[in-house]
């Protein structure tokens, strides 16, 4: 497929028709026919666009390598856009782009909101672009923006597509806004200039990921399965909604999360989030099996049902089985660590996934018989993604408008300032390690007197462990119910945990460092070499 497209696209010559090209290889409607189009960004030089097209169709680094085996691909780079498929699509808008991977010259808006002015300006720009023969328009005042459609779209479909993307701009969404006005189509513009793009579409490969492997449930199916979302079917409540046990007509049991968020989430945004989650495949992640959208209501996510409870049940309350041994606790820690490694560093599409509500209540346990060694194997599975936020890999943090989560498991920089990064999950993981080692809950160990913020940041448990750690009194830290002589392993875990819950997020280790330290033979002494960082100050 990609080879046929490469033969059709104008990669070795100056792009024709002002930078737009579309063609069909084969007979329309016949098997094996390839449909392709290419579009130059209106504010870049044609030479840069030509180089972009050559790169996109390169056998060594282009789309054939980025999207192996894919028959339908939509890709947008800084200088050009390429789209191809084995099904005819000319004249049809594609708004199902999942994510943008940005170049390193991208700016971050931080806490500056452009959304109000942009939305007003885009309403005008979208109409101008739709009526233009070249299907683009550029704003003449700050905040500057450029909108552009492919030429095959009729005016009404062009405007409908741009309007849909524009409605999904949120106040704190990171978008690329230029300091200078974009060029207006001379074709001689600087190829690396930043430009504002609605809907989060930016420079870098955009992969259209199908979610055919997920079942789209109807509202009536889930309503019947959960007894009209009854209290009796409720499994738990989290920061992002309520989870219900559902039994389908096929007798299959699923967990249904009814999302509840303060800000209204458009259907298209919800579906993009579902697409990202559908691509996450790891043995320590609760499997997403389906979804539901219903009459503009907040979406529902359907997960595999795990009947063996969560880590809090076993660790703190002693329910659903015997107290966990140190070997089992260590295995659970390693599983959570591997999962976070996957989310932060190895998830599909070079996106760092931040959980943002990681706690022992959200660590489900799968108990299976160990047929080789006897006994059981307890596998931890992270659940309740929310929906998690995603962070481009060249970006250290972002600010969020809606801060949702549990005060007892999230760090000060997020709960007070909305500063989101993977270091938020690291802080939460540190608290989980302390709970696993001590057998005590972060909730009940708080010394905070603030009634509206119980167990603030888990600081009660942290303070208690630090006091004993300064005296190296391991016996007063570890859970007395554990029958183990592996104090060296326990010491190592305590050191790692105390590094994870440092107040300064920059001082916390990343998940790769934590994984390495967990596998080391002895404690690393990292924590005790930084005495100036040991005090968590809560004002």
TrEMBL record:
Signal peptide: none annotated. Residues 229-525 form the Protein kinase domain. Pfam families: Pkinase, Stress-antifung. SMART domains: S_TKc (SM00220). It comes from the Eukaryota. GO terms for molecular function: ATP binding; protein kinase activity. The keyword ATP-binding applies. ATP binds at residue 258. Coiled coil: none annotated. Residues 1-23 are annotated as: Disordered. The keyword Kinase applies. Keywords: ATP-binding, Glycoprotein, Kinase, Nucleotide-binding, Repeat, Signal, Transferase. This is Uncharacterized protein. It comes from Panicum miliaceum (Proso millet). The lineage of its organism: Eukaryota, Viridiplantae, Streptophyta, Embryophyta, Tracheophyta.
């Amino acid at each position: 497929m990609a080879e046929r497209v490469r033969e059709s696209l104008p990669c070795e010559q100056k792009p024709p028709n002002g930078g737009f090209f579309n063609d069909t290889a084969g007979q329309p409607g016949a098997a094996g026919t390839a449909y392709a189009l290419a579009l130059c960004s209106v504010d870049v030089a044609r030479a840069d666009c030509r180089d972009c097209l050559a790169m996109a169709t390169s056998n060594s680094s282009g789309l054939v390598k980025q999207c192996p085996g894919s028959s339908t691909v939509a890709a947008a780079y800084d200088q050009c856009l390429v789209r191809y498929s084995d099904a005819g699509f000319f004249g049809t808008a594609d708004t199902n782009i999942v994510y943008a991977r940005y170049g390193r010259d991208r700016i971050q808006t931080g806490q500056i909101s452009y959304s109000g002015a942009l939305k007003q300006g885009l309403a005008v720009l979208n109409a101008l672009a739709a009526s233009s023969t070249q299907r683009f328009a550029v704003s003449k005042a700050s905040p500057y923006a450029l909108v552009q459609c492919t030429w095959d779209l009729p005016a009404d479909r062009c405007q409908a597509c741009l309007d849909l993307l524009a409605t999904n701009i949120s106040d704190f969404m990171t978008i690329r806004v230029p300091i200078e006005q974009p060029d207006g189509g001379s074709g001689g513009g600087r190829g690396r200039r930043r430009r504002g793009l609605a809907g989060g579409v930016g420079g870098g490969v955009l992969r259209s990921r199908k979610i055919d492997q997920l079942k789209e449930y109807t509202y009536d199916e889930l309503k019947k399965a959960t007894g009209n979302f009854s209290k009796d079917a409720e499994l738990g409540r989290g920061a992002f909604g309520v989870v219900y046990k559902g039994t389908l007509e096929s007798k299959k049991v699923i967990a249904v999360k009814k999302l509840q968020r303060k800000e209204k989430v458009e259907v298209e945004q919800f579906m993009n989030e579902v697409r990202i989650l559908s691509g996450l495949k790891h043995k320590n992640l609760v499997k997403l099996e389906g979804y539901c959208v219903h009459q503009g209501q907040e979406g529902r996510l359907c997960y595999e049902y795990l009947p063996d409870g969560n880590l809090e049940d076993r660790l703190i309350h002693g329910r659903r089985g015997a107290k966990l041994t140190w070997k089992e606790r260590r295995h659970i820690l390693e599983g959570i660590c591997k999962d976070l490694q996957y989310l932060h560093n190895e998830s599909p599409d070079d996106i760092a996934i931040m959980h943002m509500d990681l706690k022992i209540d959200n660590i489900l346990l799968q108990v299976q018989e160990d047929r080789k060694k006897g006994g059981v194997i307890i596998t931890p599975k992270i659940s309740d993604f929310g929906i998690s936020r995603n962070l481009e890999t060249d970006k250290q943090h972002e600010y969020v408008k809606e801060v949702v989560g549990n005060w007892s498991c999230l760090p000060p920089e997020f709960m007070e300032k909305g500063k989101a990064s993977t270091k938020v999950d690291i802080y939460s993981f540190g608290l989980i390690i302390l709970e696993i080692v001590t057998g005590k809950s972060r909730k009940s160990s708080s010394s905070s007197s603030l009634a509206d913020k119980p167990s603030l940041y888990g600081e009660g448990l942290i303070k208690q462990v630090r006091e004993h750690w300064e005296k190296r009194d391991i016996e007063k830290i570890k859970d007395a119910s554990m029958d183990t002589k592996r104090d060296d392993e326990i010491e190592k875990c305590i050191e790692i945990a105390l590094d994870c819950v440092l107040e300064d997020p920059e001082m916390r280790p990343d998940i790769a460092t934590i994984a390495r330290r967990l596998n080391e033979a002895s404690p690393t002494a990292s924590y005790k070499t930084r005495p100036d960082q040991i005090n968590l100050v809560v004002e």
